[in-house]
Amino acid sequence: MAQVSTIDWQTRATQLQFRQQAFINGRFVPAASGETFTCISPIDGRVLTEVAACDQEDVNRAVQAARAAVDDGRWRLQAPMQRKQVLLRFADLIEQHAEELALLDTLDMGKPIHDSLNIDVAATVRSFRWYAEAVDKLYDEVAPTAHHTLATITREPLGVCGLIVPWNFPMIMAAWKLAPALAAGNAVILKPAEQSPLSVLRLAELAVEAGLPEGVFNVLPGFGPTAGKALALHDDVDGIYFTGSTAVGKLIMQYAAQSNMKQVGLECGGKSGHIILRDCGDLEQAAENAAFGIFFNQGEMCSAGSRLILDAPVRDVVLEKIAAIAQTLQPANPLKPETRMGALVDEAHTANVMDYIASGKQEAELFLGGARVLQASGGCYVEPTVFDQVANHTRIAREEVFGPVLTVLTVNGVEEAVQVANDTPYGLAAGVWSDNVNTLMQATRALKAGVVYANCYDADDITTPFGGYKQSGIGRDKSLHAFDKYTEMKTTWLRLR
Q: Within 13 Å of residue 324, how many CA atoms lie on the same side as its CB?
């Protein structure tokens, strides 16, 4: 893989070819209606291509293809070692096409090419390799029953799985769901976000090249209220798995209940509390993590540490350090290798972020930033923004902004810090900094979140589960626990003579 800095990404972008159609039963096909939607790059507003806008009929075709693949066992009945080899070849092909895939995501949703290549593609490859290696290492169970009986507990693939993934990490979010679903032997229909369909359409093509049978991996670009809703309501889909906003997650639950009561997995919104206590000995590192935790990926992260909860004695020092870091993270052209903050995903989302900033100016004190910048470029750029003197009941503190907007809340001591951190309908992530191990452990146990970072923030590995408490979701992505979502557990009794 070439180094980011050695490639002329601007020129490479002009040479890129886009997959524009739906991918059903191993081939690219237009939407049944013939309708398309326009992919616009938030870098400069350029039209990238027109992509098939799938709806109910396309969902029916994809489900039919996936169901046929499940029923004849072309994938699920392959030996675990065979599935492993296909997924490993798939990971190798992703790595071989890393620069193309990274460029697709950068053009499509605006993240820096440095991050697309070194973070997103790398994590996608790691996900497929890890689940490939897990396939032939999962054992079933024998229950400790009476001597004249044998009871086995086995896992079977769920069947047809619908995956609906967001635009902030198009490949990583797809891989977190796709890799365990395929490893378990399921057939999959993936609906990417309409803002970022290009990389996963290319992934589907590479999967077939790796040896994945036709019909096992289908991709339906389109909109949530049409393609997404139809997928979640379909009576022949066995499970629906979604990453995105809590509001849409609630709709997905309703659709599952209204149809065949299919399995549901949800990874939804967050408004994570990031605590720095007075006995934190490394405020430099804490401030760096706090800045990274909100400004990385333009703040477009469900686990972003968007509520920075500062113990009063360290407040001024930490804010000063974050301000200095923010000056080094000003938005710039994502196709430049040195850029560390790119564009927001599109005009609609940029307007929404600016609306929250306007609200924040009425509710709190604007400490830093707050402006839309580089507008002459035609792109969607918002500078790092920090609000101080924030009350936890305000809109800016309670609602998920999903942009580079940090709210700072000042507290006195660990008890108040934990209380403020937990005072939210969300529970995806939380963080706490302290040099006192007793304080640290008590705080991590008291924080109501699915992922708690102690003296770090946004640490990540495919081996650890990711998901939230409360209205941040149901179930877990990553780790061996992800298999729980994509398999059925069967108990079989045998009476011995």
A: 9
Using pLDDT thresholds of 50, 70 and 90, give the confidence band for residue 441.
very high
* Interval 239-264 mean pLDDT: 98
Pick the last residue of a domain from 204, 233, 268.
268
Do both 35 and 85 map to the same domain? yes
Task: Using the predicted structure, report yes or no on whether residue 6 has a pLDDT greater than 90.
Answer: no
Q: Are residues 103 and 229 in the same domain?
A: yes
Residues 147 and 294 in one domain: no
Dihedral pair phi/psi, residue 80, rounded to 5°: -50, -40
Judgement on whether residues 202 and 343 belong to the same structural domain of the protein: no
DSSP string, 270-305: ---EEEE-TT-S-HHHHHHHHHHHHHGGGG--TT--
- What is the average pLDDT across 324-353? 97
Q: What is the mean pLDDT of residues 128-144?
A: 97
Selected catalytic residue, list 54, 302, 383, 400: 302
> Is the pLDDT score of 2 beyond 80?
no
- Output the domain CATH number for residue 445: 3.40.309.10
Q: Which domain holds residue 401?
A: 273-460
30 has a pLDDT exceeding 60: yes
* Same domain assignment for residues 322 and 423: yes
Contact 110, 169 (CB under 8 A): no
Q: Which two tokens stand for residue 377?
A: 């470029």
- Nearest Cα neighbor of 106 from 93, 119, 95, 96 is 119
- pLDDT of 172 strictly over 60: yes
Q: How many domains does the chain have?
A: 2
Q: Mean pLDDT score of the chain, rounded to an integer?
A: 97
Residue in the structure block whose two tokens are 């709210």: 407
Tell me if residue 267 is catalytic. yes
CATH number for the domain including 137? 3.40.605.10
**Tokens 């604007």 appear where?**
366
Q: Indicate the pTM of the whole model.
A: 0.97
In a domain, 491, yes or no: no
Looking at the DSSP assignment, which residues form a beta bridge with residue 427?
A: 469
Let me know if residue 214 belongs to a domain: yes
Residue 351, C-beta contacts closer than 8 angstroms, at least 6 positions apart: none
Helices and strands (DSSP H and E) totals, the chain: 17, 24
Same-domain check for residues 130 and 25: yes
- Determine if residue 37 is left, alpha or beta; phi over 0 gives left, psi from -120 to 50 gives alpha, anything else beta: beta
Residue 380 · residue 42 · CB < 8 Å:
yes
Give the domain-ending residue among 252, 268, 284: 268
Percent of the chain with pLDDT over 70: 100
Which of these is catalytic: 99, 194, 205, 267? 267
280-332 residue pLDDT tens: 999 999 999 999 999 999 999 999 999 999 999 999 999 999 999 999 999 99
Residue 456 a catalytic site member: no
